[in-house]
Amino acid sequence: MRVLLKLSGELLAGRRPPIDWEAFSFYAGEIAAAAREAEIAVVVGGGNILRGAHTPIPATGHVMGMLATVINALALRDALRDRGQEVLLCSSFPIPGVADAVDQWRAGEALSRGAVVVLAGGTGLPFVTTDTAAVLRALALGAELVLKGSKVDGVYTGDPGKDPDAVLIPQISHADYLARGLRVLDPAAVQIAAEHGLPIVVFRADREGALVAALEGRTGSRIG
User: Fold this and answer.
1) Distance CA 200, CA 206 (A)
2) pTM > 0.90
3) Radius of gyration (Cα) for the chain, nearest Å?
């Protein structure tokens, strides 16, 4: 099985933002364990370093945010290597000697031999979230599932941090997710996934064993 994991900058920030090396080591362990069960590509966010939408000139800010994902990808690559995991790092912003350009065929070959593929730089275009980048990369790589790591247990009827009556939704169709205006993922990402029949699982990623559990369908909420 081939899957794509989206890890947000919020998760990678850990307890000591912007860069928490313990958090990177933890998620590297989770990914390495899951890589024994499936072929895994990872799209990283950059919000722990900078959020482009919060900058004075958003077009430039989004590019800065995409470059921030390259920093996270480098840290995650080294954390994975420390665990003996083979890694291929690709970026929409290739940097000679640091990160190669995204090449879906080369990435597919790396996945087939058991390497983890870390994808940085989002789509390379401003005003496109890394959620949407994750869905697009998943489709390009022929992934069967997108796993969205989160700080909540899954998709809720409302914001569980603000609404005490919010209820977890174990499964919901793409259409219902969009119709209800839920915001755990960027709606554009869900719309594209819907058009291609690509399921997404939203799960709480900051617990040991959560990634493998989500991969096996034992935790989280399934969209689609």
Assistant:
1) 18
2) yes
3) 16
